[in-house]
Design a protein that fits this description.
By secondary structure, the chain is α/β, with parallel strands linked by helices. It has 13 helices and 17 strands. A hairpin with a 2-residue loop joins strand 1 and strand 2. Helix 2 packs antiparallel against helix 10 and helix 3 runs parallel beside helix 10. The structure holds pyridoxal-5'-phosphate.
Length: 398
């Protein structure tokens, strides 16, 4: 090991701010779908760094994209200048989606904040200054910044930091009368929803409720934002999760897997929305830099290939079948939900001890809320690895 792990401080003496509770292993290397810790232990990864490492670890194509971008010597230019990688990535995302334009930023929360600003800009231009409200869903998670947090349905995360962005109304998923009551032509700028709620426990929207969101937005001359930060870019077996729903948004946000582990977010817009946004309305120093954009182009092209997505669907079906069987066997499992390679195991007991026991057995999983074990393996996972991970889960849940 190149790192002198014995001299690393424990978390109590770490200089890193204690907003996280990191698990014990100290990871020093990755290969395929596995992480290796400083003791040489290998862990099968069903977490992907919370949905980020879609192409796993040590991917040759990603390494080539990094290397050739570095060899060109261009890591950053600022958005005062254009670069070929950002232009190519925006074109790629637009060509593969409903969108015409793309704004690049650095995280999921930033992508949502940008979407809110663009929606307000559009609504202000079209309907007057009262038209600034955002309607969000119960169970939603959109990020930790002041605007994104205001639309995140987690009172415990919100209260210590209030006041947040005003003007957010929450409605329960599938409650169409409540939706219709919350959305108004006079006050609503946009509705935001995750096509599959991630942190909320892996809950896919139904096509019917997605159509209701679209209809409510249209009736109020408001915009529909889909947050695909966690469920987008192949995770569900389609390049974009909205493609399962038969409903197109006006804006869509991406982040997690977009740049192969480098920080990057993106907000996709139709021309109708984009035309309301003027130079100077929004900006970020690092957004869409040539290194991250070069790597992201490789990610989007790889994941967008029909054969890649077909493999995600096949492995997803295998995983779903194994989990359905697990549900029959394990009394603590009350439901399994998901699609593609995004699954939640609903328990009638807390998830944290299950996550810890899986870690001890060499499998990385995360929780999503108090009682859901969340599975987000790399999209490149093999059939044998799906079975291996499910065997560990079966043992842990027995
Ligand atoms: C659906 C969704 N939106 C937004 C975010 C926030 O992304 P970030 O942590 O990159 O700010 C997350 C993070 O988990 C997410 O799952």
């Amino acid at each position: 090991m190149s790192m002198a792990t014995s001299t690393l401080p424990g978390t109590a003496h770490s200089a890193v701010l204690g907003v996280y509770r990191p698990a014990a292993p100290l990871f020093v290397a990755g290969a395929g779908r596995r992480l290796i810790d400083s003791e040489g232990n290998s862990y099968l990864d069903f977490a992907s760094g919370i949905g980020v490492n879609a192409l796993g670890y040590g991917d040759a194509g990603l390494s080539d994209a990094f290397r050739s971008a570095l060899e060109r010597g261009l890591v950053h230019t600022s958005n005062l200048y254009r670069t070929a990688p950002a232009e190519a990535l925006a074109r790629e995302l637009a060509d593969r989606s409903f969108a015409d334009r793309v704004f690049f930023c650095n995280s999921g929360a930033e992508a949502n904040e940008a979407a809110f600003k663009f929606a307000r800009r559009w609504a202000g231009a079209a309907g007057g200054s009262q038209k600034h409200e955002i309607v969000a869903l119960r169970g939603a998670f959109h990020g930790r910044l002041f605007g994104a947090l205001a639309a995140t349905d987690r009172p415990a995360m919100q209260q210590p930091f209030e006041p947040l962005m005003p003007g957010v109304r929450f409605v329960a998923v599938d409650d169409v009368p409540a939706l219709d009551a919350a959305v108004s032509p006079a006050t609503t700028a946009a509705i935001i929803a995750e096509p599959v709620q991630g942190e909320g426990g892996i809950k896919p929207l139904t096509p019917g409720f997605a159509r209701a969101l679209r209809a409510a937005a249209d009736a109020a001359n408001a915009l529909l934002i889909f947050d695909e930060v966690q469920c987008g870019l192949g995770r569900t077996g389609a390049l974009f999760a909205y493609q399962h729903l038969g409903v197109e948004p006006d804006l869509l946000t991406l982040a997690k897997p977009l740049a192969g582990g480098l920080p990057m977010g993106a907000t996709l817009l139709t021309e109708r929305v984009a035309s309301a946004v003027q130079p100077g309305d929004h900006a970020t120093t690092f957004g869409g830099g040539p290194l991250v954009a070069s790597v992201a182009l490789e990610v989007v092209q790889r994941i967008g290939a029909p054969a890649f997505l077909a493999a995600v669907r096949a492995r997803g079906a295998q995983l779903g079948n194994r989990l359905a069987a697990l549900r029959q066997q394990a009394g603590v499992v009350t439901e399994v939900r998901g699609l593609g390679l995004m699954w939640g195991i609903q328990l009638n007991v807390p998830a944290a001890p299950v996550v810890a026991a899986a870690l001890a057995a060499g499998l990385l999983v995360t929780s999503a809320g108090e009682r859901v074990v969340r599975l987000l393996p790399p999209l490149t996972i093999t059939a044998d690895e799906v079975d291996e991970g499910c065997d560990v889960l079966q043992g842990v849940l027995a």
